[in-house]
Structure formats: C-alpha cells, structure tokens
Amino acid sequence: MRELIVSYQRRVAGFVYAITGRSDSIEDLAQMVFVKMARALHRLKAPEQFESWLFRLARNTCIDHLRRQKLRRIFTPFAPEHENVPEPDGAVDSEELDALRHALEQLRPKDRALLALVQEGRSHAEIADICKTSVAAVKARLHRAREELRQHYQSDED
Amino acid sequence: MKTESQAWLQLQNHAADQLSPGFADRVLRAVRSDQVPLFVAHFGMALATAVLCLGAVLLFHARSSSDSAATLAGWSEIAAQASDFDQGL
Prior knowledge:
- The complex is a heterodimer.
- By secondary structure, chain A is mainly α.
- Helices cover 73% and strands 0% of the residues of chain A.
- Chain A contains 8 helices and no strands.
- In chain A, helix 1 (2-20) packs across helix 2, helix 1 packs across helix 3 and helix 1 crosses helix 6.
- Chain B has a domain at 2-63.
- Chain B is built from 2 helices and no strands.
- The interface between A and B is medium-sized, with 36 and 25 residues.
C-alpha cells in the first residue's frame, strides 16, 4: 500500500491542484483520496483499471470539496477581503505556472477536471466512464474547455 | 503550446512539492486510525437513532394514554351526570 501511495502521490497532488487551484488544500485532499483508496481497494475488481478508478476518486473528492465549500459560503458568507485569498508568497514561482493557474481558475471545476484527466493520459472512453457521460459529450466538452483555456492562457501571457 | 505543456509539468511539480515528507506514512496512519472510529461512529449513530425513535414512541404512547384516560374520565362523569338526571326525572 505504501509503495502505491508513493508512486501516485505526485500525480494525484498535481491533479488535485489543477482542479482546486489552491496549494493549501493539496495535502489534505490528496490524503483524503488515498484514504478512500485504501478503504475501497478491495472492492476494485479489475486491477488494470486501477489508475482510472483512482483518478475517478480524486476527481469526485475535489468536486465534492468545491461543492461543499460553495455551499458553506452560502450559509456563512465571507467578507469581500476573505473571498479570494491569494496564494501565499512564493507559492507560485513561475510565470507559466501562474498563467496556467489563472487560466484554469476561469473554467468550471468539471472542465478543469476534464483537462486534468487528459493530462493524466486518460482516454476519452475512460473519461466518459469517470464523468458518467458519452464519449461524444466528452469530446465536445473537451474541445470547448481547451479553447477556453487557450484563450485565458494567452491573454494571461500577453 | 510548448509553454502550456511545460506549465502543466510545473503545476504537477509544484503540487508535489506541497506534500510534506512522510506523506505516505501519514496516510497509512490515518487509514489505520480511521477504521475503528468509523465503525464506532456508525454504531453510535445507529444506536442514538434507535434510542431517539424509541423515546419518541414511548413519549407519544404515554401522552396519548394519558389523553385517553382523561377523555374516558370526562365521559364517565358526563354519563354519571346523565344517569343522575334520568333518575331525577
């Protein structure tokens, strides 16, 4: 189990960061993903689908986290100065990364997850299975998300 | 596009750097410590729900029994008064 965590922790951390955009939630969410993985691993019937299954867990954990956060803010709204707390100093140390992070922030969480799944090398069929949709819908949404990301990424770089 | 793919790589590296050393061991400790409390929490929750439901049933039963007794007493009184009235006639 330890080897499994060590070999996937970098990728899961990157995946979580791409969806949430917050450095300070990476460790907690990654831990949550691996705890869920450890608890449910015995239920995985097809070991060859492990990666796809793990990233489905990670995606759902991040989307749930963002949803809960949004819901919490409805009941306990933050003051304007607390609404968008910037990343701590030194958290983002390159312009390219900063531009990508800002561009990702402009997309919907589900689209960010879609792009992150592609970055993780998941096929369209796997993504369709993870997102519980059709391959055609994945292709269409992916095309739109890529276009949107490109626009924001370029405008950030200019 | 090259810069975008470089940025994705940087994103992954940056994210991985946020994991403090000993991450895997901490996860394993969390898994071990979570297993028993989770069972206890589920059992406790089930027990609390059962106690709450039983309490509600008993309360409802006690209240409706005392209401019925009071109603019955009221009707007995009316019946006795009616009987007295009939005898008076």
